[in-house]
Specification:
This protein is α/β, with parallel strands linked by helices. Helix content is about 30%, strand content about 20%. Strand 1, helix 2 and strand 2 form a beta-alpha-beta unit. It is globular. The two termini are about 20 Å apart.
């Protein structure tokens, strides 16, 4: 019983933090805006959309598929649909075209690690979308807490996964035998491409992340 109660307590703390992040993030969404995501940000996706619904803020979303696991297509897009939002899946090589043609207002993603020097480690493909967003003058907002374990990006090791995954799509081989694959699981986006880091304490400049730990945050 004690273990169950502690688990519920920890989950409630996490959901409360994510709800705050969702609220600060949605402040950045224009009414009737168009938002592009990347990969699957788990709880923050639901909290972000719930906040939009509660405010009556209508948005449409574009979700890159995020190969080779297709988290964006299978997970993010499904959550968006189930919560009643206008959502469109695009392939991973379409973000620039969609940003220009469909008038995307904002790009947002979560992060596997947010280094204290402002570099953001996330699902591979984040960097190229942030570059495109910067080119078109579209703000990029990353959600999550700065990682005190990564003072700089130099402490990050990019995981290289089974390259054969890039040679197939959902188990169906798409490349000829003998072709090589290459599969970095993450990439690193520099701070000059990040408009803000959205935390449970508010939105911080990627160049001022140490302040998160002096603004009253107590690790639960």
């Amino acid at each position: 019983e004690a273990i169950k109660n502690k688990t519920i307590e920890l989950n409630n703390v996490r959901y409360n933090r994510m709800a705050k992040i969702g609220s600060y993030l949605v402040d950045m969404f224009p009414d009737n805006g168009t938002v592009m995501t990347h990969c699957f940000a788990e709880t923050i996706v639901g909290m972000m959309l719930r906040e939009c619904s509660e405010r009556g803020k209508h948005i449409r979303l574009f979700c890159p598929e995020t190969r080779p696991y297709f988290q964006g297509a299978r997970l993010t897009a499904t959550v968006c649909r189930d919560m009643g939002f206008d959502v469109t899946v695009i392939t991973d090589n379409m973000p620039a075209f969609v940003m220009e043609r469909e008038h995307v207002d904002l790009f947002t993603c979560a992060a596997d690690a947010i280094c204290l020097d402002g570099y953001v480690v996330n699902k591979v493909g984040t960097l190229q979308i942030a570059i495109c967003a910067n080119h078109f003058g579209i703000p990029t907002f990353v959600t999550g807490a700065p990682d005190i374990g990564h003072e700089t990006k130099d402490t990050v090791r990019i995981e290289m996964r089974d390259p054969d995954f890039t040679l197939q799509a959902m188990g169906v081989r798409t490349a000829a035998e003998g072709v090589k694959g290459y599969y970095p699981a993450f990439d690193i986006t520099p701070p000059h491409l990040v408009s803000g880091v959205v935390t449970d304490l508010g939105i911080y400049s990627p160049y001022d992340l140490h302040r998160y730990f002096t603004d009253g945050h107590i690790d639960e």
